[in-house]
Write a structure and sequence with these properties.
four-stranded antiparallel sheet; 36% strand; disordered N terminus
């Protein structure tokens, strides 16, 4: 009887294990790629006065976005292989205080079905002092290319004082 209980418990535990995520080498249509994003830029003073969530798949829009991320004298834009990669940009628009930051956390890409980009906005917590200065936080990252729609998922975190 004791062995029967142990076998039943082992079968229950095995049934609860998550289904393995397809690997990068998987060639099925539903293959998911979750390679970490490569940060290309992150700044608090940009040319993005309005909020934006962009998926950039060509060199010309990337050059335009790079210049907006670096108003004034922009350094050369990092190279991107647009045959295999795309750039995602998240801009928060104009903010009345400092202490606000944005970071791209991950991108889950289904090559034929689009991608989901997860990002985190960090803001000063309640009661925290922040510089009274207008900022325009934005960030850009290189991720695996997706042919379909790119969806952005935001998480906001209050940074404690």
């Amino acid at each position: 009887m004791r062995l029967t209980k142990q076998l039943a418990l082992a079968a229950t535990v095995a049934a609860c294990r998550p289904t393995p995520t397809p690997q990068l080498g998987d060639t099925t249509r539903a293959a998911v790629r979750a390679a970490p994003p490569t940060q290309l830029a992150r700044a608090t003073q940009t040319g993005y006065d309005a909020p934006a969530e962009l998926a950039i798949r060509d060199a010309t829009p990337w050059d335009d976005a790079w210049r907006r991320l670096h108003p004034g004298d922009a350094p050369p834009a990092p190279a991107v292989d647009f045959g295999r990669e795309m750039v995602v940009v998240v801009a928060l628009g104009q903010r009345p205080t400092g202490g606000v930051d944005v970071a791209i956390d991950s991108a889950v890409v289904a090559p034929d079905d689009g991608a989901t980009v997860h990002y985190t906005v960090r803001e000063p917590g309640a009661g925290c002092m922040a510089a009274q200065v207008i900022t325009t936080p934005a960030t850009a990252a290189r991720v695996a290319r997706a042919a379909g729609t790119v969806t952005f998922r935001r998480q906001t975190v209050a940074t404690p004082c």
